[in-house]
Design a protein that fits this description.
Pfam families: ARD (PF03079). The protein is an alpha+beta fold and 200 residues long. Helices cover 18% and strands 30% of the residues. Strand 6 and strand 7 form a beta hairpin. The relative contact order is 0.21.
């Protein structure tokens, strides 16, 4: 039978269940023993991922194709580090507050790395480590948060359908249509919704 081929995306995107420690948010926060999550399992939560050529993003045909297929007409860059981001400490705290958006959140890491934490079907935290060359899409309505890792630097391309709306809705916002739609599309059809409101 042989060993299945490793998913090439795992070079730049890895995911694992988080511990409950209150230590520095920029640490990996692995459980003991470590409990990794496959990118297929992330896809079941609606989190999509790609491995792209970050050194060639201006001319990357695959990125162009993804943007055309998914309607990502808007693009800009966001650099998150103490030297480049005004009100850095306040912004990092805001990014790490659990929230959702009413649209997809699309981030393509072209330099550095960072953590996107998402809730699974049972409301447990999964930490998604995105490094240079990794692109992820968080679906509208998923509760999530962001932080840098201990390298304290990420440069990310932000994509959006139409004019961007970055409004975060801090938890709880279970009444929003985007949240209800997320639960219908990704949680209830999996039969894993029994604990989804436990921490609301």
């Amino acid at each position: 039978m042989g060993v299945p081929d490793k998913d090439p995306r795992e070079e730049v995107i890895q995911a694992w269940y988080m511990d409950d420690s209150d230590e520095d948010q920029r640490l990996p926060h692995h459980r003991d023993p470590k409990e990794y999550v496959s990118l297929d399992k992330l896809a079941e939560l609606g989190v999509l991922s790609w491995l792209l050529d970050a050194d060639n993003y201006e001319n990357d045909e695959e990125l162009k194709k993804i943007r055309e297929e998914r309607g990502y007409s808007y693009m800009d860059f966001c650099e998150v580090c103490p030297e480049k981001l005004p009100n850095y400490e306040e912004k990092i705290k805001n990014f790490f507050e659990e929230h959702l958006h009413t649209d997809e959140e699309i981030r393509y890491c072209v330099a550095g790395s960072g953590y996107f934490d998402v809730r699974d079907h049972n409301d447990l935290w999964i930490r998604v480590w995105v490094k240079k060359g990794g692109m992820i899409v968080l679906p509208a309505g998923i509760y999530h948060r962001f932080t840098l890792d201990t390298d304290n630097y990420i440069k990310a391309m932000r994509l959006f359908v139409g004019e961007p709306v970055w409004t975060p809705y801090n938890r709880p916002h279970d009444d929003l249509p985007a949240r209800k739609g997320y639960l219908e599309n990704f949680v209830q059809k999996k039969g894993g919704n029994q604990a989804i409101n436990a921490a609301a």
